[in-house]
Amino acid sequence: MSLNRASHEGCRIGRVASALLASVIAALPVGALLAAPAETAKNPPAKPATFEADIIPILKNRTCLGCHNPNLKMKELNLSSYQPALQGSESGPVIVPGKPEESRLFHMVKEGLMPPGGKIHLSDEELGTIRGWIEGGAKSAAEPHAEAALTKVTQDDVIPLMLLRCTVCHGLRRQEAGLDLRSKESMLKGGKSGPAIVLGKPDESLLIKRTRWSRRKTAASGRSSRPRPPRRQLCSMPIACAIPSMPFC
């Protein structure tokens, strides 16, 4: 008898629980039951950050473009558009896609070194946006990735650098070591030590070797030196010359 009574009591409790659950579900509005799927539909996954939509507004708001624009380009850095931004400054790329901690742009703003003066600091949200953009591959909404941009160097890019920074000693009135750097032909001809550039071989080009040696010597002495062409453009020049379609060749 005790076993039958326990079984009967268990069935009764089960029926009560089922009835309570059914009443709770019936009392809920239909919208509440569909809320989760609807909410998911309203909030699709966030789109990857892009230079135009997410980064340019920060650079404008934080006055970065005041010093790094097509007209001023301090340190040869132009942040006003995607391709020039990825090309970097006279010291090399400032953005390493996928690696924010190796990107000089992110380092400078994170440490508060830029913008200069210490009065303007990027917010945590802005820093997070820049970090996320770089981690996501530093994409553009309108342009292809600019990895090949550094190879698009022609004599129209190089000759102005020579005229600005090198032809005082290697130009019309003065040609130290018999070297004239005013034209592609004169650079290929070279001076007493041989050709100034070796097409397709930047590390074998005397122009590159001399610039690197001078920079190391100046850094070791702690003294300032005469302005020399930005290393990025110089190193790109001979590589570009190895490509037949480039006008410099």
List keywords for this structure.
elongated, 11 helices, 0% strand, 249 residues, mainly alpha
Question: How would you characterize this protein structure?
Answer:
The protein is mainly α. It contains eleven helices and no strands. The protein folds into three domains: 2-42; 51-147, no CATH class; 152-241, no CATH class. It has helices at residues 2-27, 30-33, 35-42, 51-61, 82-87, 104-110, 124-135, 155-165, 184-189, 206-221, 231-241.
Write the layout of secondary structure elements.
Blueprint (H helix, E strand, L loop, with lengths): L1 H26 L2 H4 L1 H8 L8 H11 L20 H6 L16 H7 L13 H12 L19 H11 L18 H6 L16 H16 L9 H11 L8
How many individual β-strands?
Answer: 0
Q: Measured on Cα atoms, how large is the radius of gyration?
A: 32 Å
Into which percentage range does the β-strand content fall?
under 5%
Helix content: 40-55%
TL;DR of this structure?
By secondary structure, the chain is mainly alpha-helical.
